Amino acid sequence: MQKGIEPWQVDQARKALIFLYLDFFELNLRAPNSTAETKNRDQIMDYLKLIKRVVILLLTAIFLPLVSWGTESLPHPDSYLPHPTEINKMKKLMDDDTDLMAISPPKSLLPPEIYEQMSCDLYEAKRQTAEIIGFKSPDVVGKIAPEIRPGKYMYKDLEKYPALKELFPPELLFHIKPGGPPFAGCIPEFEIMPTRQLYWYLRLCEMTKKNLGKTKLDEEGYILPLSWQGGFPFPLIKLHSMNVVPT
Questions:
Q1: Which pLDDT band, with edges at 50, 70 and 90, does 246 fall under?
Q2: pLDDT of the residue at 36
Q3: 3-class DSSP assignment, residue 118
Q4: Which long-range contacts (CB under 8 A, 24 or more apart) does 107-112 make?
Q5: What is the pLDDT averaged over residues 90-102?
Q6: Is 133 a residue whose pLDDT tops 80?
Q7: Interval 16-53: pLDDT, tens
Q8: Is 38 in contact with 31 (CB distance < 8 Å)?
Q9: Helix, strand, or coil (residue 151)
Q10: CA-CA distance, 20 to 55, in Å (whole number)?
C-alpha cells in the first residue's frame, strides 16, 4: 500500500461508495393522492438526490484510481510465497513434526516492505491488548482442572488423569486416540503449555483504542456500517462467557 494510505481506509471508502450506490438505485414511490405540500417536499428531495448523484460520480472518478494506485505498489503473493508442492516437500501432511516457522521464517519469505507492516513490538502489543480487554490471559486460567500441569501427555493419560477431559472441547477430545491406518487426524500424544498472553497486532490495538465507543448499533442490534471506523468495535469481553459488551 502506498505510504499514507491504510488498507482499512480503502475498505471504508469502498463501503461508503457501495452505500451511496444502493441509495442511488432506491425506488421513489409516490402516493396517488399526494398533497401539494407533499409534492413540494418530494421535489426538494429529488434535487438533493440529484446533488448526491453528482457527488457519487465524482467519488467514483477519484476512488477507483486511488484503489489501483494503492494496490499496484504491492508485489503479488505468488512472487514470494512458496507453492503448496514446495511446502509438502518441507513438511509431510501426516506424522511430521517439522516446524515450518523455524526452517522458513516469515522474515525470509516476505519482501521487506510487507514484513515491516506485519511485524510489531510484541511486548507493547501484549500490554495494549490486556489494557483494552481488561485482563491478562495467564491471570484468569487455572480454575478448571488446576491439578493438570504443563507437560507432555499421551492418549492413555485421559484415563490416568480424568481432569484432562475438562480442558478439551468434545469435538477435539474425540480425536485423542491412537493414530495409524485407517484413521487420520488422531492425536496420540500432545503437550500442554503454560498459558500465554493473547495479543492483537499493535496497529489494530491502536486503531481499536482510537475508535472505542464510536461504533453504533441499529434497532435490531446490527452494526451501522458507516459508524465503524476501524479496529474491534466492541473489544470488552465478559469473563467466563462469550458475550460482548457494546460500550
A1: very low
A2: 56
A3: helix
A4: 109/80, 109/81, 109/82, 110/80, 111/75, 111/80
A5: 80
A6: yes
A7: 656 555 555 544 444 444 555 565 666 666 666 666 66
A8: yes
A9: strand
A10: 9
Distance of CA 75 to the CA centre of its chain: 22
- Asked whether the beta carbons of 161 and 102 are under 8 A apart, the reply is no
Contact (Cβ atoms closer than 8 angstroms) between residue 225 and residue 19:
yes
What are the C-alpha distances in Å from 175 to residues 55, 94, 95, 158, 187?
57, 14, 15, 12, 6
CA–CA distance, 217 with 165 (Å, rounded to integer): 39
172 in helix, strand or coil? helix
Q: Which of 211, 209, 215 is nearest to 227 (CA)?
A: 215
Q: Fill in the amino acid letter for 107.
A: K
The amino acid at residue 222 is Y
Residue 211, pLDDT above cutoff 50: yes
Distance in angstroms (rounded) separating the CA atoms of residues 214 and 99: 42
**What is the mean pLDDT of the segment spanning 210-230?**
89
pLDDT cut 70: percent of the chain above it: 66
Q: Locate cell 470488552: which residue?
A: 236
| Cell (9 digits) for 96 | 511430521
Which cell numbers in the block locate residue 45? 428531495
Burial 120-157 (b: 16+ CB within 10 A, else e): beeeebbbbbbebbeebeeeeeeeeeeebeeeebebeb
> Is the full-model pTM beyond 0.90?
no
Contact 217, 194 (CB under 8 A): no
